[in-house]
Structure formats: structure tokens, C-alpha cells
Task: structure prediction
Amino acid sequence: MKQLSKRILAKGTFDLVYHGTGKKDADDIQKNGIDMYKSEKGFFGRAFYTTPNKNLAVANYAKFSDDEDSGEKGEILEFRVKSGARILDLSHGNQKDWDRWMIVSGQGKQISGDDFHNDMQSNNVDAIYEPSIDSLVVYNPKILKFIKRLPI
Result:
């Protein structure tokens, strides 16, 4: 698994990732860091959902965060993935990482737990890459270094 993350980072695929959110949440993340208990439970459990595709972050996340009442627009946060991150790659044909995912997620049954992100970290998984949604699903926010905010 460590070799995988080095390969991915070497290719530049996950050198930078983006998170789309509302202005208020962007302020909170920039000031206080990522609080996993404020993260929603998505398809892959409680996690901080990012993507290497800035346009996807805008279209699928930031634009949904626009607040029509206040007129505030969504924002994009840019992060660098730290070297050595333990990333499972769920791409087609990567059976070893898929098998590991099935074990550590309890066949997907444990995803709904409030502490799923902690369970993943205790099983040496910092994040997963899921190509069908082009997302790096982060369970350990310490692998991300905040770079900057990008208005949309």
C-alpha cells in the first residue's frame, strides 16, 4: 500500500486535491483545520471528500454550497497530499487493494459508524481513491496540507 501512494504521488495524480464547500465551512477549515466529525457520511463513510479534478470540485461540491439567501458563493480549497500517505486504489484491476478495502470496511458494513475514519486509520488506511467518482476519500486529514482558497 505504501508503494502505491508513492507511485500515485510520483505520477502527480494526487499531488494536489480540491475540496468544494461553502464560504463559512471554508473559513472554519482554514482557521481550525479539518474536523472529521463535521464531515458528512458519504458513500464511503465519514470522510473528507476531495478530488484531483478542480472542475469536478466546482461542479459537484462548491456550486451546491452556494447560499442564495446570503449571496455567498461556494469555494474551493486546494490541498497537497503528503508523501507517504497510505492510499488504497480501488481502480479496476487493483484486486489487492479491493480485497484490503473489503476487509477493513467489514464488507462495507462498518461504513455508517461515526468513528469509521478512526477505524480506517487504525487499519493503516489514510485514504482511498475511487475512480468512479474521481475522488480521494480521506480518512486521515493529517495527510493533507492546506495550500490556498480558490474562488469560483
